[in-house]
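**Archive record**
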Amino acid sequence: GWMNKHLNLVPALVVVFYELDWDEPQWKEKQSECATRVEIVRQSLQGRNTKVAVVLIQKKTPLPPGEDVIASERAAALCNACDLSGKSLFVLPHTDHLVGYIIRLENAFYEHAQTYYYTEIRRVKSHKEFLNKTTHQLLFVRHQFKIAFFSELKQDTQNALKNYRTAYNLVHELRAHETNMLEIKTMAGFINYKICRLCFQHNTPLDAIAQFRKHIDLCKKKIGSAELAFEHAAWMSKQFQAFGDLFDEAIKLGLTAIQTQNPGFYYQQAAYYAQERKQLASMLCNHDSSVIYPNPDPLETQTGVLDFYGQRPWRQGILSFDLSDPEKEKMGILSLQLKEKNVLHSELIITLLSNAVAQFKKYKCPRMKSHLMVQMGEEYYYAKDYAKALKLLDYVMCEYRSEGWCTLLTSILTTALKCSYLMAQLKDYITYSLELLGRASTLKEDQKSRIEKNLIKVLMNESPDPEPDCDTAAVKASQKLWADRVSLAGSNVFTIEVQDFIPFVQCKAKFLAPSFHVDVPVQFDVYLRADCPHPIRFSKLCISFNNQDYNQYCVVEEAYQKSDILEQSSQGTMCLVPGKTRKFTFKFVAKTEDVGKKIEITSVDLILGSESGRCVILNWRGGGGDAASSQEALQAARSFRRRPKLPDNEVHWDSLTIQASTMIISRVPNISVQLRHEPPALTNEMYCLIVTVQSHEDTVAKDVKLTAGLKPGQDANLTQKTQVTLHGTDACDESFPALLPDIPVGDLQPGEKLEKPIYIRCGTVGARMFLVYVSYLIDTIVEGKEILCKCHRDETVTIETVFPFDVAVKFVSTKLEHLDRVFADIPFLLMTDILSASPWPLTIVTTQLQLSPSMTPVDQLESYVENVVLQTGESASECFCLRCPPVTNASGVATGCYIISWKRSSPVESVPVVSTVITLPHVIVESIPLHVNADLPSFGRVRESLPVRYHLQNKTDLVQDVEVSVEPSDAFMFSGLKQIRLRILPGTQQEMLYNFYPLMAGYQQLPSLHVNLLRFPNFTNQLLRRFIPTHIFVKVRLGMTEDNSIMS
């Protein structure tokens, strides 16, 4: 048609490229040749309005316009020769700027092409002005569509959209009749497609959706001929599919879709109409095989194509609504029906559903995806592609099982069972039969009974009865396959993993306790419940554990005839009655090597059938449960419905819980462990912990071993500062361990008691947890079987560690005054106080002062607190007279260390002595230019002479000029030099002798000695008073009291 003509055949612009320079020597010949070419192009266009342009390809760069006179003249001559306007002649210089010239040419060509389409639009509009809406309704639609179409070619999409909308409205103003209904819908579909496409291009998707909804609302009831109703369904399906394609294409170009508005919904609706088309075709095209296709073919035309879209081939050019040839109309409808009969509807439906599933998967709509996959599976079933149908349905079933959609699941299972029957898939047929008999199935009892009988036939190696509503030809083919299955002696054992299905048998295994002692039999129960219509016999029940050695003890087996599998009797051990819970109890003796390990039920196997026929193994992982068990348990826990009372030997199935594992723990020990000690422990002492072990067993406890020490898992610093030993006489060092493992003790007779001392040394204060672990072996009999059990008992104790004493150290002068620094070569006193902080008496064995090389003792260093016993809060003090030689380091001098050897006071002589080393503080040493020392008695008497000798010693390398004076005191008279000036040589001393005469008794102030050093004015009397006494105690003279009484 005309659209193809304007899209592919008739150009808007023809460009003639000709190689010609302005300075061409043979200009006349070249000009004539170019004009001839243009004329040939015009003649080939046959008088159409197509624009013609000429491009001269030149080698030289042209001069700016107006400067090249020759170029201007020759250009005008060429335009006249070719009958072209000046705007249709272009120059393309082949130079470095070629890309820029090409872009300018492209824009010029675009303008010429637009001009062409503008002219075409004006031409159509001029025709439209002569139309009358009464008689030319169809032409109004045609002309409006042409205007929109040319606007779109002109790339004026806004005007194109506007005119397409007008054309669409005009289509629906046409008078519709059964004869022209298809043509109206076809045109409406074309124009709607254009409108929606342009809306998506303009990024207005809501307008596109609104237009499509309007289109569907207007057309969905325009069915046309009832005998060709499937055509309307096919047209509706095509509309939704096309819009879905447009929507998907727009998304690929950047449009954002959402869950509730995406192409999947339109593909789904297209599939729905395709299904409706299939149903209508099955009703309307159900002709007998004797009906043949009409001859001649009413669908053929003379030209092979239709004059107008949407018209019937046998009614071309007829605008009347009346049927001129009813017989021809009837043959045309028959030919369309027979053609529709050969259409593969299922393939169309599956393709559309597949597109929808892909979209819903993309936009995370899982339930929509599952719903459509079910429909795909059913379509594959109708298309007799049973393998694909089964694959899809099997995939979807998992979700419906887990969410508990029983009705939907039953419907899917029914279709899946038909597929498996028609393919003679034994395992699938058995699996779906088991599930359709179960509690998730909503089938009626008679249907379940039929499926159960078919299942038994399969287990007895017989062919089952056909499933209802299956295709007859497919049933016959499947019966042959089943016969082959019966005759083949292949694998007859089928294992079905129950956790992925909901079979008609439920299983729950439960250990009676979360843990069992190794000398007590392990007991557990297995509960089975059947939901099938009739009682059914199983042949074997066996339980598997993570330790397969126990499997042999947990097997129940019952032999019966093949015909007894459905016997209406509940007397057999392995017969399950519907709705009744059957309990099987097992017990076995655990192995001693499994102590401390978990015993788990790995699987429960229930075997249906026998090895002579076919055998189905229902396998539950763990302690039971299938695909619906977790949801049912949750519902039961939330339910407040009161359960009816059952007889004592029955239980409520919902009240049973699965306990699939238990722990094997050691035998209960029959020994006592007692710990005796005297807390708290003292730092670094050998603390004694006495462990008393007594056996209360009836037989000999063999191979008794003791583990004692710091409990593992505590702070790493505690481990490094804690040592444990069995020998308390030896002091521990850091090489000793914090835990002594497996100390052999020997055997213990019944009632025998054993004591074992453990010695602990704690190097830091704080709380520690200690472990005492006693293990032994003993023979015992369980269920008539003798086993060797390993028993153990452990005790823990927390012991606090404290300092045994506090040591205070201070430096004082010979006058017992506190010193913050000492003077070189001047004696001073070091005083130590040991204060007991222990709640137990301490014995100070001895002390030792170890001086650094920078310190010297004035007298012999001896301990004055040897073997002193200190109670809590008592203290022991010592005093040492020391001297420090002159040093160059003024920051501080190390004194040494003070070593205290002590032990806890105890009648036991073997308690080791602990040596605690106290590092003494550093002391600041200063030099002094003059040292004054006084020799005087310790006391005086009233009116008795008191000789006092002062020694002045020069401590410098210089001669000292010294001024000495004595200031009197009210309590003394004195004789001697009151004021004197001396010169003392370096390193020498000068003596001064005074006789003091006390006048009063008591603690009296001595006459003050003042010394002034001319070379050292900073030497003050306050510093002097540190070395010489300022007071003395004066006693009353003997006999003085009697004299005073006589005088009185």
Notes: The mean pLDDT is 86. The first strand starts at residue 13 and ends at 19. The chain has 22 helices and 44 strands. Residues 427 and 494 are 7 Å apart (CA to CA).
